[in-house]
Amino acid sequence: MAERKRLTAGDWTVAALDALSEGGLAAVAVEPIAVRLGTTKGSFYWHFSNRDALLEAALLRWERVNTEEVISLIDAEPDPHSRLRKLLDLTLSHPAEQPVDRAMLTLQANASHPLVAPVFARVTRRRIDYITGLFAAAGFPPDPASRRGFLAYTAFLGHVHLASTSPELVPQGADRRDYVDSVVATLTRP
Fold this sequence. Notes:
Layout: H1 9-23, H2 30-37, H3 41-47, H4 51-75, H5 80-91, H6 102-109, H7 116-137, H8 142-165, H9 174-188
């Protein structure tokens, strides 16, 4: 008889975030996730006191992976212009090249949910502040840097929505590179 792998809280968290991305907040339910993981509800209760604790863990994972880890990756670039270009290149990708952050769309649609609201607001603020900082580091004064940071983030939100609902409309290959170049040129024009 094969020995069953012992699941961790991280396994449950990843599965919850996947469920959230695929089916919305209602999909973060203990029994279906247990089936997905090939285990019982007992495993869940070993790691979490209730569904809300699992949802909170999934939200924090989303924040860490899709915001803080991306920022760390971008910060490895040597100068502000390279960081801005890399960020836009990464975030304005085609779904075939980079999976769409479907969790973000779900969370945006549920931004008033008591568990989602503080995380979504914090992530939104962090992302806009980070992008604004890139423009400031590239030499833009505070007000124009702020406006450009906001514009870049709202363009990203529109891109994610379009990539999720109509991926065939999102440029890819050489057209995507030209698109990213034009976005960078538009946002960095004096």
